[in-house]
Amino acid sequence: MKEIWERFEAWIDRYANLLLDDLNGGAEEEHFEPIEKAIRSELPQAFKEFYRIHDGQYSESEEGLIDTHILLPLEQMLSIWAQLRHQFDEGAFDDLESEPQDGIRMEWWNPYWLPLTTDKAGSFIFMDFAPSRQGNLGQIIYMPRDSAERILLAPSFEAWINRYVRHLEEGHYRYSERMGGIIQKQRLNGVSDDSQHSFWHDSENDDLEGFEVVKEE
């Protein structure tokens, strides 16, 4: 994860250097414990190593590191999870139906989904600790705002973040202050949100599942 952060920060420094100031310092071991207790699951080692270097972005950040999404600090992950858990316990999601891809449970939200990122408008990326039989423990899934879709991005946190940094380096993303941070070039050029989802579907021809980005011709 140290190498991943070095590459990630090198890209940010070159193309979006103002965002370097948004990064928190590293998390301590005791910061992971409340999350593991809440979700009743052990966090992946790769995730912990990643967050020991930088505990996401400042909670008041307005520009996203992850395709306009804020990379959440651990404390904010737990806060958002608690809000969703309260709504879940109150039955707010009982009558809502989801349209999950294979590997994801058919639920609007599950208490074993830990929020990793948000666009602050209702879309989230989660780490899923309650996959269906076809899924992988700790897989990464996307929940678009105002949508029943639940989209599988990657089989693990490590695969997802490796993939994202590689796509930064390959030139699939740009920084745009107007659009709210680092953003896919296709979205910057006017691709709709619906089309955006196709960039994140699995590809049979790819070396890693999930978070597929369509290359420009």
UniProtKB/TrEMBL annotation:
Q: Where is the Knr4/Smi1-like domain?
A: 26-163
Question: What protein am I looking at?
Answer: MoeA domain protein, domain I and II
Q: Record the organism.
A: Saprospira grandis (strain Lewin)
Top-down, what is the taxonomic lineage of the species of origin? Answer: Bacteria, Pseudomonadati, Bacteroidota, Saprospiria, Saprospirales
